[in-house]
From TrEMBL:
<feature type="coiled-coil region">
    <location>
        <begin position="84"/>
        <end position="111"/>
    </location>
</feature>
<protein>
    <submittedName>
        <fullName>DUF3302 domain-containing protein</fullName>
    </submittedName>
</protein>
<feature type="transmembrane region" description="Helical">
    <location>
        <begin position="46"/>
        <end position="66"/>
    </location>
</feature>
<feature type="transmembrane region" description="Helical">
    <location>
        <begin position="6"/>
        <end position="25"/>
    </location>
</feature>
<dbReference type="Pfam" id="PF11742">
    <property type="entry name" value="DUF3302"/>
</dbReference>
<keyword id="KW-0812">Transmembrane</keyword>
<keyword id="KW-0175">Coiled coil</keyword>
<keyword id="KW-1133">Transmembrane helix</keyword>
<dbReference type="InterPro" id="IPR011223">
    <property type="entry name" value="UCP028770"/>
</dbReference>
<keyword id="KW-0472">Membrane</keyword>
Length: 130
């Protein structure tokens, strides 16, 4: 009689440990994401619960998803960021060059207008001198 209750207690204890163990294991990707301040940590948490119902099929992908992000380097595309930084500086230089050229064109237009005004004024002065 005592062994029956003891076996029932062990069975309930083991069932609870397995139940909570599965939940804790499925929260590991979420805990990793939370620790790393992952931008998609809520999605990883919800997907962990969904993976319980998909017989753990997506859980390895959640682990990978959670471990790819690092706060100090993001997704790890530092080369892409460096290229974008270089492109940004090149665009800034081109904008400066375009503004300089626009100023030069405006100055040349003003000079050509001054020359045209002077040229149109000279023939009238020549007529008056004669």
């Amino acid at each position: 009689m005592f062994l029956d209750y003891f076996a029932l207690g062990v069975l309930v204890f083991v069932a609870l440990v397995i139940f909570y163990g599965i939940i804790v294991i499925h929260d590991i990707p979420y805990e990793i994401a939370k620790e790393r301040e992952h931008p998609h940590q809520d999605a990883i948490h919800y997907a962990g619960w969904v993976s319980l119902f998909t017989l753990h099929a997506i859980w390895p992908f959640l682990w990978i998803w959670a471990t790819l992000w690092r706060k100090e380097r993001g997704w790890g595309f530092s080369k892409l960021e460096a290229e974008q930084h270089d492109l940004h500086h090149r665009v800034d230089k081109l904008i400066d060059q375009v503004e300089k050229l626009q100023n030069e064109v405006a100055d040349l237009k003003m000079q050509s207008l001054d020359i045209d005004v002077d040229a149109s004024a000279q023939p009238t002065q020549n007529k008056e001198e004669k």
